[in-house]
Amino acid sequence: MADKAKQPAPLPFHYQFVAGAIAGVSEICTMYPLDVVKTRFQLQVGKGGADGYSSISDCFRKIIKNEGFGRLYRGIIPPIMVEAPKRATKFAANEQYKALYMDLFGMDKVTQPLSVLTGVSAGVTEAFLVVSFELVKIRLQDKNSAGKYNGTMDCIKKIYQHEGPMAFFNGLESTIWRHALWNGGYFGCIHYVRGMLPKAETKQGELGTNFIAGTIGGTFGTMLNTPMDVVKTRIQNQSAGVAKKYNWAIPSIATIYREEGFAALYKGFTPKVLRLGPGGGILLVVFDQVSQMIRKHLM
C-alpha cells in the first residue's frame, strides 16, 4: 500500500505556506460561484417564495438575470485574503499534528485513526483563522445585503461600527464543528483511498491517484459537515439589533430540523459537493505538485 512507503519529510512551514496558498487560490478561483449558490440555498427558509431558488441552474439564472454576472464573485475578496494562511494551516497543521501524535503515541507509521485525528486537530486550528473572513463573506453573499454593503472594507467597517469587534467571532463554535468534521473526513479518506488504490508507477498515475483520493475525501467531508455549515451560515448572517434565532450549533440544528425538516440540514449540499468534491482533488494535486517542485528546485 502506498502509505507503507517511506514518507518524505514535511516541508518547512514557509514552503508549506506557499504550496498551500497556490493550491487554495487555484481551487477558489475555479469553484467560487458554486459557493455563492450554496450560501443562497442555506439562507433560504422553506421554498423562499416567488424569488426562491428551485435548483442550481435556477439559482445561477436568477442571480445573473436579476443581479448581474459579477454577483457570482461577490464576497470573493475575504476568502482570497484568507486562502493562503487557511490552506497553509490546513496542510501544515495536519503535518505537524501527525508528527506530534506519532511521537506522543510511539507510532512509526500513519494509520487510519491517526489520519482522522490529525485532520480534526488541523480543522479546529483552521477554524480560528477563518471565522471572521467567513462572516464577512456570508454577509456579502446574501442577496438581502445587496444595497447594505458597498464592498469588503465597507462591510467590515459597518460590522465593527454597529456590532462591535467581537461580532467577527460570531459562529466560532459552529465553524470549529464544520472544519473539524470536514478535515477529519478529508484526510482520513485520503489515507484510506491511497491505501486501496494500486501504487502509481508514473507521474500521471500519481496525479490521478491524488485527484481521486482528494475528490473522494472532499465529498465525504462535505457529507459529514453540511449540517454544521448550514447552521454556521444562519448564525453568521444574523445582524445586531434583532433577536438571534440561532446561537449554538446543536440547538440550532434541532431548530432547523423541527421547523423545516431533515432535508433543510442539507440545503446547498449539491453545489457544495460539486465544489468541494473536485475542489478537494484540485487542492491535493496542486499542493502535492508544488511541494514536489519546491523539493526539487529549492531544497
From TrEMBL:
User: Which GO MF terms does the UniProt record name?
Assistant: ATP:ADP antiporter activity
An example Gene Ontology cellular component term from the record?
A: mitochondrial inner membrane
Q: Does the keyword Transmembrane apply?
A: yes
Domain of life the protein comes from: Eukaryota
Q: Which UniProt keywords apply?
A: Membrane, Mitochondrion, Mitochondrion inner membrane, Repeat, Transmembrane, Transmembrane helix, Transport
UniProt family annotation: Belongs to the mitochondrial carrier (TC 2.A.29) family.
- Write down what this protein is called: Mitochondrial 2-oxodicarboxylate carrier
Source organism of the structure: Dimargaris cristalligena
